[in-house]
């Protein structure tokens, strides 16, 4: 019984109680206001934490335990409903502070647009930044029906900021023709349909580089992740996604931050997507935070 | 078989094929970007239309049939995802045009904030406008955590525009203390918990006045409308809500427009809320469009 | 941003950060191992807290705000899976400590058997204890198919401990013939089907007495609380249950503790039961903790 | 352990093992092929039996136990998928045999059209037959878009067979204008919206008459029975329906058979409708089988 | 805003407004009255169209856009509920007319029996017709418990009409022993379990032949298509099914018509099956309509 | 029509009516009281039987029909709710009797702890017993937070009883570090992630040995079995699991009993897991009972 201090309920399993001592910080970005199809990812971080109680603390893949890593679950960043610009500004400030204090940022979305301010902050610290992006969708639009702040645009914005040749997208199976053409023109790297195989080829070339890994849960086939805004048939298995995370973990790249976005619990009646996401977060903690 | 013209699929049952000849226009306002709790009402209008095929065309309450009224289902107003201000502007323009062309506007939300631009447009045409508002919530906030464009604010904005004493809220059971106090101070009319009984007292006083009726589906108890963003126990039955609509229909007020908002299909696995909403729309058409 | 202290995530809205300063303590009893029908109430407390973010902090019924009461959400009592006796012992010890420290105990189940050790603890402190019990079921069995530790027995155990004439059950609509006969014989008070009306008659007789209020959510009709283990048609509305809580709050009895049990989120796809339960908890805090 | 005889699994709770000795026979009619909206009631009888294990065997309303009545659950009548006429013929033969052997027939649908052959069989034995019909819908069509075998026609067929003045419909809130007009013309009795109150007026007039009771679960409001094909807002509560069954049970009419139809489990994620239906079946057994 | 013409709501994304100018016609066959297990596919076409708004208009597989093909979504063929023979006759007439007017027919079921009248119509125009059939089930029964019009019979009827050696079934994993034996005897081609690999061997042999492609969504594993009447474990992935469609698209066969059947939305709470089906329809349009 | 004998409803399809004549007995063990995460597997056996009506009776994999095997579905063993020890004792006695009477035991869980008393009984008859265990989890704990009777312990208990080197676990992807270390130390065989490939290597070494096969449905990926207590991403497909069962069936080991556990219907809204489980049971009957 713990009566004499604040109860700490819904945090990811084995979260470290002390921010200062932690290497990494886990945080939620509960924003879904620009999605063009099915909203609901604002509740992703809460549900991922909730189901994390069903996880083992040990990874049979990486032979490492959660207590080997000090990470602090800081909860959700409070974001103003229906105000995309202000939300993005708040996220950027938040990451600025985390980076200034030497923490490894590990974010949970929310819609994919939340990755954009994170990447902006990362790039200020790591001018040589590389992005590894796993997703069903290109996310390379300049705008969605006139709106530049849209969940279909973050990788475009990122590519224009850090240079298209520093962006590697994997598992892509949907997008506008123009997006694929733009990527080709400017030298951005798109690997269609597969993740693990092209990743194995790419990773050696990135040795030593600072890498930000952004994973849209819909890179998984709908069979493996029905609980997301925009399901898209023909995706990879959770087994391939786990193997891909492990491939990065064992490579010589320098992972400096990561996120997992677009988990929408209301489309997940069996909670399988949330459970899968919580396992992915565990593997990202164990694999990326050295 | 109809090969030689455009197929008209998802419209409300018995929608008239011709806009010009129609007295009333039914339209969707698929916006849910400012909600502070559970989004999803953007899909409300589509689902309400879809299940309308299960409706009888005759009302045993009003002894009137849908073919006795000419109404045109104009579909959803295309609204920019994640941009509240522009969405509201588009709705206002839309209603301006409907009113200019002499149509009775009957809207389906979407979140409750969509009623605000409609009321603005109505007020331009009807300076003597009265609002009958049925809802679980006061919706009288000035802002939500700093955001003035929020689904918790439309009745406040309306009351300030048309004069608080012209606004009658029924069935209210939730709100901030400040909201109730403000209403009292400025002379706005709030009837807590009940709808039908206070309505019977109020209606005679409004005889001859132009009235806009705005119904948030959550005025119903969660038992009767689980499929909405913010369910709130202790509400009225669908039977009381039907009786209230009929009470207005039979009164001497001049209903000049109406809406039904906040149906969120994803929280409605049995589709009962959508079915109930489609019956309410039928009764609003048959009762309000003379 | 709060980096320098433990994040306190999943607590009931407006929970006070400090145990010592609090008048009341809210705690979960996540046990469902003896239920004879549908399990799942172990997740009730977590989900009730989660959805409490959708609540207003003000009660329009009682004209009181949550910040007027200091209550501390202590989280769930860790209970050993599949071991009823040890679980009950842990709960009793927990309540003993709460009472020794002068706190008002407000519990969330879990199955109804969790009320039994709470009542044992209450009775040690209040030998004149009265129980107000709202439920669809008598819960007066001596055992369930030979098992004395069963969710169908807590009121029997309580009645035998504190004297049957000190137990008042309301809203009962199901039980074995023998249970009703036993109650009659020993002078226990069972009011069938209704809650509010008989309660109004009973309360004046209990003026000044210490009262423990135990509410099984299934006293509500399945329409109002589908998310519970044993739904039973013919129940009361959430409106009647709210009114009954308010009736107690305004009476002259001395409420010394309370619980709300049997919320099972997995049978609650729209989360309506959890939302209703969280509103009931708010009203119990505002009405019972003086 | 029972190794030496056939296992009898999915039967209604407390079903008597022996057909010959039984007064009543419970049977399923798993047909849903003519429904015009949402199919799925073919699985109603199986699910109603399955959840009956959650029932108490005693009725606190009628003070009677299931073991006081000998009824045999004969399982579902095997009906040919997609062949309405042959299905109806098989049902009629089945009931003919039951009646010849002096059994009280208690049926579970399936769609409402299954009541038609039952009524035909009843009428052969009871030329003075009266029908008490509880439903949201008139079911008085001659055909549905040209098909005379439709779930919207059984009461029309019945009224034409046994004489419209012998048919009493309660709770009706939907139908075509023509249906209401026909009923009026021919002297059929339709009581709109309510069940219990008009029933109390009607029952004394039917004293001593043989009565067949047919209940469409959708007479209940969707709040009380979401799991049905055609939900229709504005219905009665399960409490009113229970009271109505009890009113008949205590009256002087001679109930000679009954059915409960249109439970569709797939629209019933919380199983509340199935649980309610199983309680209704229990009360029909205890109330109607003398 | 479009006020002056009929609103065209629920059509597949990018449907061409004009029938005459279109090469292909998309139509629904909302019939499910003969299914022996779980009904509900009548709502398949509507839901597939509804979710098509979430699709990209470009195929990253075929490098082709929807606006490169003129196809007209003609809506659902109105079919009489519960009357299989008349329904099949109406479908056959409908296809006769489409073919007479030179349109490519692309159908959405509904149960698989709807393919039978389509194939009859196709065969009248293409006496050299070949059928490529992807399914979990043989569908080679002569009847289902005596009913010759059953969803388990269409391929048998087709094989007997066009000659068994012209029918190629892929992915089959369920059927009666007699069905497999019959196929073997008469020279029909059944490829068990796999689709893509045997298809690559078969396609070259069919070069230049007119081919009708009929896909039962249950050829997919239940993981990839839970929303269907008869799920059957051990199926292929959506990735393999997409690849198979593309294999046909790139081959030298002459696809003259196609359908996708058995999507049942009510068994698809996350809408993943409907979303997958809508992507398959897009690929069939882009791949088959030249 | 079958009026003169007990109706035998919910049994697995083609269950033999006579126990004495049967080679195998199918039985349910509806216990879930020790699970540490999501309960609900008590309803697994009932639902598996219910959906078995959708199965074909012939296996296209094994070319064998259900009527070729005499198996008797004995229903569920009645187990006392919330009393693990007594439940396990009852199961052990039950299996003792089955084995004494020469029956092949085929069990359906319930939680995995139910396999422990079965294995105890098997070991008494077969001292040379080998266990083939397919699961996501090691299940090698000595206790769960102090409770030795837990669903996380059965394989540990079994390994200690029959000797760790006689236990082969496949598909394992989760467990505590200590569990993997213990297995290694004592010579238990754990094959991580895969099932079919290592099984092909192991089976020849077990030729002639008596083997008990215990399958936790969560060895499947959540995509293939969402309806279970503890889903864990990265699992095998239903196709691999089917192939593994067939591999055992075709090998030279002597399968002497088997079970399939942890199907939890409430997490299975599309019933895909139950349907898959019923197919697995069919293949286990056809493959294991010679």
In percent, how much strand structure appears in the residues of chain A?
Answer: 15-25%
Q: Give me the number of helical elements of chain A.
A: 8
| Class from helix and strand fractions of chain A | alpha/beta
Major beta sheet of chain A, specifics?
8 strands, parallel
- As residue ranges, the low-confidence spans of chain A are 1-8
As laid out across the biggest beta sheet of chain A, the strand order is 4-1-5-10-9-6-7-8
Kindly, what is the distance between the CA atoms of the first and last residues of chain A, rounded to a whole number of angstroms? 33 Å
Topology of chain A as a string of helices (H) and strands (E): EHEEEHEHEHEHEHEHEH
- Rg of chain A, Cα atoms, Å: 17 Å
Q: Count the beta strands of chain A.
A: 10
Shape of chain A: globular
The largest inter-chain interface, given as chain pair and residues per side, is: A-C, 29 and 29 residues
Assembly context of the chains: homohexamer
* Helical residue percent band of chain A: 25-40%
What's the rounded overall pLDDT mean of chain A?
Answer: 95
